[in-house]
């Protein structure tokens, strides 16, 4: 494997990890506040559909992005209403959202575009373009660092950079601001927040809405950045992979970066080497493609260390004396 | 002011009370938790509120802290009428609350817990450094030393409580409410807490101490108010009262219950308990060497203020001691040693050995509230051969039994298909009592048989207990109702602080003498227990009597 190949695989990994990272951070906000969110998948899917549709109709990926955020936020609010206001079961609400998104996107797709559930392919201006960072071309010839800068760091869509910036931002919000302190507290012991005179409901709603925005970004990236349009079930379990990454990362933003990179890398390798020839045996492509999912199962089964979720996670808060 | 406060907590002339409650009422559905509560707490004093579990103390304090809205009544803080709509309002009014179960975030540092909800701005850094300074100051002033950078789960319970107090002080609380603060503390920690409270009082803070421990009240409070069944039955100066008087006020004197019963004819011992000890998972000794016998055809009544180990004793005998408890001693049933640990020490085995159990809390341990009455009738006995119909359960047989129990015990409404929660307290209790008594146990454990039960059902249940005794069975009756103990028991043992203080025969004792034992006083010679307490002291006294 030569250097340019490595750069190419890493470059592909960065693209592929971006929706995972955004969804993972979405889950991080929600779950840190004590609201489990297995509806990441559905929200991403909905956002992918709405963003692709609007981007196609208006020709603007930015309006598409807004629509994506709107679509995901709508589902977020449903989740919040069900699990915070009405103290319903958060898992059931999440499952419902996944089903709703999976059915609604196809139904609306067929109804509006008549293409069997897809949206028309986005061309040119309908997608987010790749940004070439300054001096990318001039620095390309610098050994080692040149290609890393020009081919790996430069040349992604704006959403990739946004996703990566979200990591330090989330860390800062979580551990350096009042909001972050309260957010972490409400996920650990909502009674402590409540007795301090702060509204548990409001905090959790804010967290769930932030999760919606981030899922919106993730979905829009899938449909208008990574590919050119919406395809039925295009999230392909990425929401669940993001959840696995979140657990792997122990609900920490910087670790989330590492965890999602691992998944992105696996996917990139599988794409690059459909049939990995190890000399002795050839690993079939099915296995390579299944790798991220196998890793997900391993993580969710708890093989990777002990991950302690936020203590009040999954429990609706009922005020007691 | 601090000096004045130290002198027996007399309020400064013309100074308004720190807290004044006027006719506060609160009900939850049909249950009246607080009824026409009046309370006045002079500034700079320690005020005890004493009462049994369920007397309404915590509800009252939750109203003060804005958790509940009172149905009626008025709250005045420093003489100003105030509506406390939420905790934020209470905090702003200078009220701080230390809950029985701490409201701390376990994986946060002390500092983070202190500033939570009281941050100075959107960023944490300035708040944290300010809190660090304030904490240093408070630590010096009140001996409240805690490492600010330690996380809560690394702290002992006593230190966690200090963090709660610091939280309140950081929010500049002038009025500090502590709900059962010593329940989880070791004696040394409790002493330290009391020194802290004395220090706070010296600084002019007003402290409300909710407890059911008489000793604490006598040791540290200036005034004490007694609550019973949602009402404030007395407010007195601590110096002018005695533990026995408070014990009686707490437990209350009801209409003398009349239970007709022939003298007991005790036979061979059924239950022999020796040196029973139980240490709970927090290291608190709940039972400190209990020993007694119960013979066939005899009712042994265990009197005592609740929280002195009765619950632990019943649970242990019934086969389900608290998780994590360490148990030692010996229990013999019909001459056979019972296992205290392991799989043969569970409730099912105890039932097989002939022990029936009517638990103290029927709604939690006696019934499954959402299940039908007929289903509840089978619980604990569902594995009995007569209920097995091959592969499935013989529900028809269970329903038939339920019908019979309902008839025999006059459970109303006479509908075995209703969920348990749809019956009144008295009828729920009848279902549980019927289930246990109809099994004809050699020994019946029965805790608080008439708590929350109406008069008619009380008589009925009492009669059935006596009938069981006359049938030659042994009964262990645990009750906080002294009258019930006196009316039913053939012998009375008084529990205090995990020990049996003494045994008396009902004919040869008085409520006064029992009250002393319940308060942990064994030396009865200095207190002639002739007729108990003079009746006039039982009346509600207004507090304080000084001119304003």
Number of alpha- plus pi-helical segments of chain A: 13
Instruction: Give, in spatial order, the strands making up the sheet with the most strands of chain B.
Output: 6-7-8-3-9-10
Provide the number of structural domains of chain B. 2
Compute the number of structural domains of chain A: 1
Rounded to the nearest angstrom, the radius of gyration of chain B is 25 Å
Assign the structural class of chain B, choosing from mainly alpha, mainly beta, alpha/beta, alpha+beta, or little secondary structure: alpha/beta
Helix content of chain A: 55-70%
Class based on secondary structure composition and strand pairing of chain A: mainly alpha
Short description:
Chain A is mainly alpha-helical.
Folded structure, characterized:
- Chain A: Keywords: Cell membrane, Membrane, Transmembrane, Transmembrane helix.
- Chain A: One of its GO terms (molecular function) is transmembrane transporter activity.
- Chain A: It is found in: Cell membrane.
- The complex is a heterodimer of chains A (321) and B (548).
- With 321 residues, chain A is an all-alpha fold.
- Chain A is built from 13 helices and 4 strands.
- In chain A, the strands form 2 sheets. Chain A has a two-stranded antiparallel ribbon with strand order 1-2. A two-stranded antiparallel sheet of chain A has the order 3-4.
- In chain A, helix 1 crosses helix 11 and helix 2 packs antiparallel against helix 3.
- Chain B has 548 residues and is of the alpha/beta class.
- Chain B has 2 domains: 2-9 and 18-109 and 151-239, P-loop containing nucleotide triphosphate hydrolases (Rossmann fold, 3-Layer(aba) Sandwich); 269-530, Rossmann fold.
- Chain B contains 18 helices and 22 strands.
- In chain B, helix 9 (243-251) packs across helix 18, helix 14 packs across helix 15 (425-437) and helix 15 (425-437) runs parallel beside helix 16.
- At the A-B interface, helix 8 and helix 9 of A face helix 2, helix 3, helix 4 and helix 5 of B.
């Amino acid at each position: 494997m030569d250097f340019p190949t490595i750069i190419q695989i890493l470059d592909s990994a960065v693209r592929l990890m971006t929706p995972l990272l955004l969804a993972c951070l979405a889950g991080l906000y929600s779950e840190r506040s004590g609201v489990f969110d297995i509806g990441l998948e559905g929200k991403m899917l909905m956002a992918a559909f709405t963003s692709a549709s609007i981007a196609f109709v208006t020709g603007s990926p930015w309006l598409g992005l807004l629509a994506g955020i709107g679509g995901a936020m709508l589902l977020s609010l449903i989740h919040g209403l069900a699990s915070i206001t009405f103290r319903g079961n958060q898992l059931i609400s999440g499952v419902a959202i996944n089903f709703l998104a999976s059915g609604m996107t196809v139904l609306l797709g067929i109804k509006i575009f008549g293409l069997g559930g897809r949206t028309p392919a986005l061309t040119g201006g309908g997608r987010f373009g790749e940004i070439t960072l300054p001096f990318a071309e001039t620095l390309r010839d610098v050994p080692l660092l040149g290609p890393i800068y020009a081919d790996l760091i430069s040349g992604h869509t704006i959403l990739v950079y946004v996703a990566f910036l979200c990591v330090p931002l989330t860390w800062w919000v979580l551990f350096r601001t009042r909001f972050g302190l309260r957010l972490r507290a409400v996920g650990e012991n909502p009674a402590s927040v409540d007795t301090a005179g702060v509204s548990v409901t409001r905090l959790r709603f804010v967290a769930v809405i932030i999760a919606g925005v981030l899922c919106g970004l993730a979905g829009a990236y899938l449909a208008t950045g990574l590919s050119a349009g919406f395809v039925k079930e295009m999230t392909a379990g990425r929401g669940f992979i993001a959840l696995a990454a979140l657990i792997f990362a122990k609900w920490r933003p910087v670790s989330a970066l590492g965890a999602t990179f691992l998944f992105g890398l696996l996917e990139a390798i599988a794409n690059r080497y459909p049939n990995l020839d190890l000399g002795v045996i050839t690993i079939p492509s099915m296995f390579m493609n299944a790798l991220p999912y196998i890793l997900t199962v391993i993580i969710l089964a708890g093989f990777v260390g002990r991950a302690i979720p936020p203590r009040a996670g999954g429990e609706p808060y009922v005020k007691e004396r | 002011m601090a000096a004045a406060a130290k002198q027996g907590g007399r309020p400064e002339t013309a100074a308004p009370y720190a807290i004044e409650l006027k006719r506060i009422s609160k009900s939850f559905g049909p249950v009246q938790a607080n009824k026409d509560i009046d309370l006045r707490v002079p500034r700079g004093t320690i005020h005890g509120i004493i009462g049994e579990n369920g007397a309404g103390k915590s509800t009252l304090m939750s109203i003060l802290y804005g958790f509940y809205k009172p149905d009626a009544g008025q709250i005045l803080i420093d003489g100003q009428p105030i509506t406390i709509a939420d905790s934020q309002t209470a905090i702003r009014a200078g009220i701080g609350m230390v809950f029985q179960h701490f409201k701390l975030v376990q994986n946060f540092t002390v500092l983070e817990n202190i500033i939570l909800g009281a941050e100075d701005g959107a960023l944490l850094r300035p708040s944290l450094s300010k809190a660090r300074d304030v904490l240093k100051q408070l630590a010096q002033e009140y001996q409240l030393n805690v490492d600010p950078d330690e996380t809560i789960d690394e702290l002992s319970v006593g230190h966690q409580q200090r963090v709660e107090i610091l939280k309140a002080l950081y929010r500049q609380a002038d009025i500090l409410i502590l709900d059962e603060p010593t329940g989880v503390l070791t004696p040394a920690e409790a002493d330290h807490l009391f020194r802290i409270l004395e220090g706070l009082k010296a600084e002019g803070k007003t402290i409300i101490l909710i407890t059911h421990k008489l000793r604490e009240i006598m040791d540290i409070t200036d005034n004490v108010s007694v609550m019973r069944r949602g009402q404030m039955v007395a407010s007195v100066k601590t110096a002018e009262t005695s533990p026995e008087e408070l014990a009686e006020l707490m437990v209350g004197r009801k209409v003398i219950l009349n239970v007709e019963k022939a003298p007991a004819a005790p036979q061979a011992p059924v239950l022999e308990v020796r040196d029973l000890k139980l240490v709970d998972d927090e290291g608190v000794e709940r039972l400190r060497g209990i020993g007694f016998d119960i013979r066939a055809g005899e009712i042994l009544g265990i009197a005592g203020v609740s929280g002195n180990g009765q619950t632990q004793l019943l649970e242990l005998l019934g086969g389900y001691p608290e998780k994590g408890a360490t148990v030692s001693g010996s229990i013999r049933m019909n001459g056979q040693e019972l296992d205290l640990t392991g799989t043969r020490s569970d409730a099912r085995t105890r039932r097989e050995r002939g022990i029936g159990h009517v638990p103290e809390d029927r709604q939690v341990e006696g019934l499954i509230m959402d299940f039908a009455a007929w289903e509840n009738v089978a619980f604990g006995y569902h594995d009995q051969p007569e209920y097995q119909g091959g592969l499935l359960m013989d529900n028809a047989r269970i329903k038939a039994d339920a019908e019979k129990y309902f008839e025999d015990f006059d459970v109303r409404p006479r509908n075995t298909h209703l969920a348990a929660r749809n019956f009144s307290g008295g009828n729920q209790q009848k279902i549980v009592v019927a289930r246990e008594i109809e099994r004809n146990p050699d020994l019946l454990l029965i805790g608080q048989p008439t708590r929350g039960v109406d008069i008619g059902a009380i008589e009925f249940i009492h009669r059935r207990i006596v009938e069981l005794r006359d049938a030659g069975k042994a009964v262990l009756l645990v009750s906080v109702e002294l009258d019930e103990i006196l009316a039913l028991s053939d012998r009375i043992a008084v529990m205090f602080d995990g020990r049996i203080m003494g045994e008396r025969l009902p004919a040869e004792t008085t409520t006064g003498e029992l009250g002393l034992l319940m308060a942990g006083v064994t030396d009865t010679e200095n207190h002639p227990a002739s007729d108990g307490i003079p009746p006039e002291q039982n009346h509600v006294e207004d507090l304080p009597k000084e001119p304003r």
